[in-house]
């Protein structure tokens, strides 16, 4: 018999007893979601301001996406790539046209897609650039987050993510984020560099937003040095930052034309995950043009579930929702509103130092240390007041609601945040 949960306490005890401690969740047990809202086991309703780390941009249980899942689930779920199926090609055409690349390599999780991009980049280095075997290097940024595999954590500088998981994969060079000079110097000084892997905005690091021209200039420097720029848009992509992709930058297209030539920086490889399935099913992808993607030949890379018909249908539905419901434009408009309200609040707040972000990927920084528990304490108080958010560090809280939020709801959420922090400040001992 499978137990059914009757209280939050019971669910937490079960996880404590039987699950590995690889997360430290806020003590709330969710059992239902719809749009921008989630409900706990006791029936309390919350605004979701994490959106499952930006996987649920389209809102919880979007009927169109769930509909696509349920229809395909009753027809065909998995064929493996040993055979063709009648959905994958349709999906591949759809997603490559959607993002403007020749080809896609479908995977499941974000980390797998990053690994895939690293493998393609290395193979390209040996077979197209003539870098001596096993010498290729990839430049990455300080405070990056690209996932949890052994290779990816090898180039993390988060001690928690890294320590005692060695030996580490070699071949990565770290430079500061948002530092064009460092990029230029390192590319000039080492002929064996094959790629630059970068998040257009560093989400896990605390929504660290670079200068407006950083990505465009970085791409120029990469091109001049014949180095592939790999954009990890797993968190920033799919309308989150107010344009379809964060590499669209602060363009003036209002999110309508996502690839205006003068504002869109086209990376050599685009890595997507999270919201390409609207949080309904694990789907990830690497997109690139032919001259890069063709280094992968049969038998050289793969995944049992990658490109399965169920995930493919879900991803198409999820990407359609982004366009149908103008999610880029909405994220852009609401993001401006959010930062305006927070900036006004900061003028009179004793604890909040700054707000930063783009679109609906934002964070506030509290005047305390990275090791403090202040952000956690505020998140606990926000939870009591009906809003769920999570710290990225001891003093940083990320705010990333589903993009289907209305203006009225956003104002209500800002009211909750301001009220909660104001109350918190009355008892705050720094
Ligand atoms: C979440 C995330 C990943 C890893 O995705 P998983 O699906 O958790 O493996 C990689 N890069 C970035 C920028 C992310 O936000």
From TrEMBL:
One Pfam family of this chain: Aminotran_3
GO-annotated molecular function? identical protein binding; ornithine aminotransferase activity; pyridoxal phosphate binding
GO BP, sorted A to Z: L-arginine catabolic process to L-glutamate; L-arginine catabolic process to proline via ornithine; L-proline biosynthetic process
Query: What pathway is this protein said to act in by its record?
Result: Amino-acid biosynthesis; L-proline biosynthesis; L-glutamate 5-semialdehyde from L-ornithine: step 1/1
**What's a GO cellular component annotated to this UniProt protein?**
cytoplasm
Name what cofactor the protein needs: pyridoxal 5'-phosphate
Which CDD domains does the record associate with it?
Answer: OAT_like (cd00610)
Is Transferase one of the keywords?
A: yes
Task: Name the InterPro entries for this protein.
Answer: Aminotrans_3, Class-III_PLP-dep_AT, Orn_aminotrans, PyrdxlP-dep_Trfase, PyrdxlP-dep_Trfase_major, PyrdxlP-dep_Trfase_small
Instruction: Kindly indicate whether the keyword Transferase belongs to this entry.
Output: yes
Any idea which UniProt keywords this protein has?
Aminotransferase, Pyridoxal phosphate, Transferase
Q: What is its EC number?
A: 2.6.1.13
Q: Which family does it belong to?
A: Belongs to the class-III pyridoxal-phosphate-dependent aminotransferase family.
- Note the NCBIfam families from the entry: Orn_aminotrans
Listed name of the protein: ornithine aminotransferase
């Amino acid at each position: 018999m499978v137990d059914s949960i009757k209280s939050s306490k019971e669910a937490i005890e079960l996880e404590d007893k039987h699950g590995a401690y690889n997360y430290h969740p806020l003590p709330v047990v969710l059992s239902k979601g719809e749009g921008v809202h989630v409900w706990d086991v006791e029936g309390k309703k919350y605004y979701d301001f994490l959106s499952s780390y930006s996987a649920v941009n389209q809102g919880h249980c979007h009927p169109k996406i769930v509909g696509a899942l349920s229809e395909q689930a009753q027809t065909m779920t998995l064929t493996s790539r040993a055979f063709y199926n009648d959905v994958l090609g349709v999906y591949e055409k759809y997603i490559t046209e959607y993002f403007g690349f020749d080809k896609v390599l479908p995977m499941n999780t974000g980390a797998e897609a990053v690994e895939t991009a690293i493998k393609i980049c290395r193979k390209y280095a040996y077979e197209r650039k003539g870098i001596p075997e096993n010498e290729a290097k990839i430049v990455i940024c300080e405070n990056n987050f690209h996932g949890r595999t052994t290779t990816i954590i090898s180039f993390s500088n988060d001690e928690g993510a890294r320590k005692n998981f060695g030996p580490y994969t070699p071949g990565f060079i770290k430079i500061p984020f948002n530092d064009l000079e460092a990029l230029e110097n390192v590319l000039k000084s080492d002929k064996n560099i094959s790629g630059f892997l970068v998040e257009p905005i560093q989400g896990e690091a605390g929504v660290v937003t670079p200068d407006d021209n950083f990505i465009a200039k970085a791409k120029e420097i990469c091109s001049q040095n014949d180095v592939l720029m790999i954009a990890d848009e797993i968190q920033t992509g799919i309308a989150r930052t107010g344009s379809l992709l964060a590499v669209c930058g602060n363009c003036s297209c209002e999110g309508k034309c996502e690839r205006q030539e003068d504002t869109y920086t086209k990376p050599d490889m685009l890595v997507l995950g999270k919201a390409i399935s609207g949080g309904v099913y694990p789907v990830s992808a690497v997109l690139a043009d032919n001259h890069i993607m063709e280094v992968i030949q049969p038998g050289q890379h793969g995944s049992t579930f990658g490109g399965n018909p169920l995930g493919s249908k879900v991803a198409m539905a999820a990407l359609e929702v982004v366009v149908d419901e103008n999610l880029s434009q909405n994220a852009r408009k609401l993001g401006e509103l959010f930062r305006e309200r927070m900036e006004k609040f900061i003028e009179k707040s004793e604890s909040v130092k700054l707000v930063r972000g783009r679109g609906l990927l934002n964070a506030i920084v509290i005047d305390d240390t990275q090791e403090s528990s202040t952000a956690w304490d505020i998140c606990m108080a926000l939870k009591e007041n009906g809003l769920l958010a999570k710290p990225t560090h001891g003093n940083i809280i990320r705010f990333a609601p589903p993009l289907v939020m209305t203006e009225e709801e956003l104002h209500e959420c800002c009211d909750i945040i301001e009220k909660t922090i104001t109350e918190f400040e009355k008892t705050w001992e720094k």
